[in-house]
Every structure is written in structure tokens, then in C-alpha cells.
Design brief:
Layout: H1 3-27, H2 41-54, H3 57-69, E1 86-87, E2 94-97, E3 108-109, E4 116-117
Antiparallel strand pairs: 1-2, 2-3, 3-4
């Protein structure tokens, strides 16, 4: 197979895998990434960054696609740190990583209203 054909075949297969993963996540109730107010750029970047350590390139690619489709890059805003990238679904305040010494708290906690994310985000 020629280089161009191989490249295009790989891209087609990868895009299909991305679509399957997006469909699965929609069925699980995920969505809203296109709304910049409800899902700020820095939150998407943090979610994408977390996927590198999890090892699934399809997840990384889907978050990159979301940013690309919104016309945004992959660099955090100058005033934003990765830890501040999650907003509480209850009060919209920044969620922060829980204190690992407190086993009662889940991975993400809102100090404003006390909301406790039941599992690691995303």
C-alpha cells in the first residue's frame, strides 16, 4: 500500500473509532462540549490532558477534536491552572482535587457548596 493510501486508511479507521466512542459517551449522558459557557476551554484541555495518562488515544483525539471544532487551541488560558478547570455542576464554582488524606471525599470537591464528584472527572 502506498504511503498516501495507508495514511488515509489509518485516518478513516481512527475517525470511525472516534465516532464510536462519542456515540457510546452520548448514550451514557455525556455531552455539552460545544457550549462554551457551560464547558469552558480550560475544562476541555484538562480533560484531554488527563486522558494522556489513561492511555487511550481515541479519548485524547476526541477532546482535541472538540477544541478544534470550537476554534480553540490546546494551551490553557493565561489566568487558568489545570486544577481550576472543573466547575461545580451545582453552583458553578471551581472544583478542586480532594484531600487524599480524607478518604470520605471523592476525587473532586466544591468548597463553596460541598458538592462531591462521585468519580474522577471526566
Amino acid at each position: 500500500m502506498e504511503s498516501k493510501e495507508f495514511d488515509e486508511s489509518c485516518v478513516d479507521q481512527f475517525a470511525s473509532a472516534m465516532k464510536r466512542k462519542l456515540a457510546k459517551k452520548r448514550e451514557e449522558g455525556r455531552g455539552g462540549w460545544s457550549n462554551k459557557e457551560d464547558c469552558p476551554k480550560d475544562r476541555l484541555i484538562k480533560m484531554m490532558s488527563d486522558q494522556f495518562d489513561k492511555g487511550d488515544p481515541i479519548n485524547v483525539a476526541n477532546f482535541a477534536m472538540m477544541l478544534w471544532a470550537r476554534g480553540e487551541g490546546t494551551a490553557y488560558s493565561k489566568d487558568q491552572s489545570p486544577e481550576q478547570a472543573y466547575a461545580c455542576p451545582e453552583c458553578r464554582s471551581d472544583m478542586t482535587p480532594s484531600d487524599e488524606a480524607d478518604r470520605e471525599l471523592k476525587p473532586w470537591y466544591c468548597h463553596e457548596c460541598g458538592f462531591n464528584e462521585p468519580e474522577a472527572l471526566p
